[in-house]
Amino acid sequence: MGLETTAIENKINEKFGSDVFNFRMEQDILTFEANPLVGKEIIRFMKEDETLRFNFLTDLCGVHYPDNPQNEQFAVVYLLHNWIDNVRVRVKLFLDGNNPQTDSVTGIFQSANWMERETYDFYGIIFAGHPNLKRILNDEGMISFPMRKDHPLEDAGRTDKDDRFFGRTPHNYEPNN
Questions:
Q1: Could you tell me which residues are beta bridge partners of residue 31?
Q2: Cβ contact 65:74 at 8 Å
Q3: Phi-psi sector, 124: left (phi>0), alpha (psi -120 to 50), beta
Q4: How far is CA 173 from CA 13, 158, 162, in A?
Q5: Distance in angstroms (rounded) separating the CA atoms of residues 177 and 174
Q6: pTM for the predicted model, two decimal places
Q7: What is the C-alpha to C-alpha distance for residues 130 and 53, in angstroms, rounded to an integer?
């Protein structure tokens, strides 16, 4: 018999109590949210526990929710896979918009190294304790984070195209009816 989602939820709840919440199924993947202060310990527990055995970090990414309350404007999402029982789990840590920061999990999964760097590069999320947290794809001199929703889509000074032809209407444009 494989690892059931209720067993996963019960084991994590038993260990972390009120620091884990909102367990639900999202597109056939057990998903839950966690307090970012214990996020690293949750990931470690899920990997090292003899029953859970989430031994592979499939993905780690950032999300920007500018319309959320200030203390939940960013999220780090971890997708873990238990290859033995072929079960996946998604863990979400919501972070403060003024100081989007959580602990690095590179000491648990070495594969997190580049994923955390990419998330920092595009969202500005700080991974405390990361061995080399610097931009990985964008220029080192860049001061903005291009995947944030408040980042401009392109250079506002461009004169070689008309936004009306790309489905965007400038604020001063009034179409003829």
A1: 24, 90
A2: yes
A3: left
A4: 55, 16, 11
A5: 9
A6: 0.84
A7: 24
User: With contact defined as beta carbons under 8 Å apart, do 5 and 30 qualify?
Assistant: yes
64: burial class by Cβ within 10 Å (0-12, 13-18, 19+)? Answer: buried
Q: CA-to-CA distance for 173 and 176, rounded, in angstroms? A: 10
Edge to edge, the sheet with strand 20-26 lists: 20-26, 29-34, 87-95, 74-82, 56-64
Q: Is 102 in contact with 162 (CB distance < 8 Å)?
A: no
pLDDT at site 5: 95
In this structure, of 14-18, 32-36, 165-169, the range with the lowest mean pLDDT score is 165-169
Provide the token pair at 78: 């971890």
Domains plus CATH for the chain? 5-150 (3.30.460.80)
Give tens-digit pLDDT for 73-125.
999 999 999 999 999 999 999 999 999 999 999 999 999 999 999 999 999 99
